[in-house]
């Protein structure tokens, strides 16, 4: 992907996230890896729904700022890029319902998945990562045990992260997560979560393995 295309992909991703109420004010960040020496990053302190091409910053894999004013949360993105060579795009947003699950049910380690076939097939298991203070290296450290096997995850009491091999996958993972969390919340409000039969869950998980790891 050439630089201009990558910048446009970042802007489009941010606009979609903003339109779906997954970003507010200066929340969130999006990055695209062009090479180890050039990672494009959204700026700090700006409403991502309204940023322009000139606002996009450039950093390197070893966290050297080449151009612009990237978010302090870049440490989290760099941890993903270092751990997953196939990761080309990282999206960090604040989807309200996904975050609410981590606040209301702090005992959960994974989003409840066995009641919803689409969740199993489209994302697989979605871990809820332990809380880490925003903007610190600890945000990247707590992700490290999960990012190789999971492309979508909830960041407890903070937000969510999705990565992909292209910007559409990274965005779709975030959209799927929030939509799924809304369905689960509605089910909880209507009387409680239920589960598919164990044998059906097993079949769906095997189908997911054959489909691969991409977020759908």
Question: What secondary-structure arrangement, pairings included, does this model have?
Answer:
Elements: H1 3-19, E1 29-35, E2 38-41, E3 57-59, E4 65-67, H2 74-83, E5 89-93, H3 96-104, H4 117-122, E6 128-129, H5 137-143, E7 152-155, E8 159-164, H6 167-189, H7 198-211
Parallel strand pairs: 6-7
Antiparallel strand pairs: 1-2, 1-5, 2-3, 3-4, 5-8, 7-8
Helix pairs in contact: 1-6, 2-5, 3-6
Report what the structure shows.
- The protein has one domain (3-211): L-fuculose-1-phosphate Aldolase (3-Layer(aba) Sandwich).
- With 216 residues, it is an alpha+beta fold.
- An 8-stranded mixed beta sheet has the order 4-3-2-1-5-8-7-6, sandwiched between helices.
- It has 7 helices and 8 strands; from the N terminus they run αββββαβααβαββαα.
Short structural description:
The chain is an alpha+beta fold. The protein has seven helices and eight strands.
């Amino acid at each position: 992907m050439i630089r201009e295309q990558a910048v446009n992909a970042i802007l489009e991703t941010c606009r979609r996230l903003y339109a779906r109420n997954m970003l507010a004010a200066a929340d969130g960040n999006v990055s695209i890896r062009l090479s180890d020496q050039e990672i494009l990053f959204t700026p700090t302190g700006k409403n991502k729904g309204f940023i322009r091409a000139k606002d996009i910053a450039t950093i390197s894999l070893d966290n050297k700022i080449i151009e612009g004013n990237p978010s302090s949360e870049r440490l989290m993105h760099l941890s993903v890029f270092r751990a997953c060579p196939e990761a080309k795009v990282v999206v960090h947003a604040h989807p309200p319902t996904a975050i609410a699950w981590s606040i209301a049910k702090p005992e959960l380690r994974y989003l409840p998945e066995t009641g919803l076939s689409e969740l199993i097939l489209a994302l697989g298991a979605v871990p809820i990562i332990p809380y880490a203070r925003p903007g610190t290296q600890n945000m990247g450290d707590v992700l490290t045990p999960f990012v190789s096997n999971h492309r979508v995850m909830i960041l407890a009491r903070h937000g969510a992260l999705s990565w992909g091999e292209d910007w559409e996958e990274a965005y779709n993972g975030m959209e799927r997560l929030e939509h799924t969390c809304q369905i689960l919340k509605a089910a909880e409000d209507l009387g409680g979560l239920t589960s598919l039969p164990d044998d059906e869950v097993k079949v769906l998980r095997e189908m997911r393995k054959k489909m691969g790891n991409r977020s759908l």
